[in-house]
Amino acid sequence: MVGKKIKVKKEAGLDAKAAALFIQKASGFKSNVWIEKDERKANGKSLLGILALEIGFGSMVTLTADGRDEDEAVEVLSGYLAGDCRGND
Questions:
Q1: What pTM did the predictor assign?
Q2: Over the stretch 13-36, which tens digit does the pLDDT of each residue have?
Q3: Where along the chain do its domains lie?
Q4: Contact between 36 and 89 (Cβ < 8 Å)
Q5: Environment class of 73 (CB within 10 Å of its CB; exposed 0-12, middle 13-18, buried 19+)
Q6: Phi, psi dihedrals of residue 37, rounded to the nearest 5°
Q7: Helix residue spans in 1-89 (DSSP H)
Q8: CATH homologous superfamily for 2-81?
Q9: Contact yes or no for 67/29 (Cβ under 8 A)
Q10: Interatomic CA distance for residues 24 and 39, integer angstroms
Q11: CA 4 distance to own-chain centroid
């Protein structure tokens, strides 16, 4: 299991569009992906779960992946949340 704390730098946070893109990226990995904010945790491949966390710009989240491609999953998905060009579309 690999985890990383990230400050969300996407301007709109994880609104519906950004969350859908995050899920599309997360679904490309075999690993289970979880995202946590303020002690609430959601499946990183669930739109409703992510939207329920109300992740806005500047939010601190913990991203966790567990599986055979966990390192790559955390790297790519954390890059997306942090606004890194490797994770953006």
A1: 0.89
A2: 999 999 999 999 999 999 999 999
A3: 2-81
A4: no
A5: buried
A6: -140, 130
A7: 16-26, 47-52, 70-81
A8: HPr-like (3.30.1340.10)
A9: yes
A10: 24
A11: 10
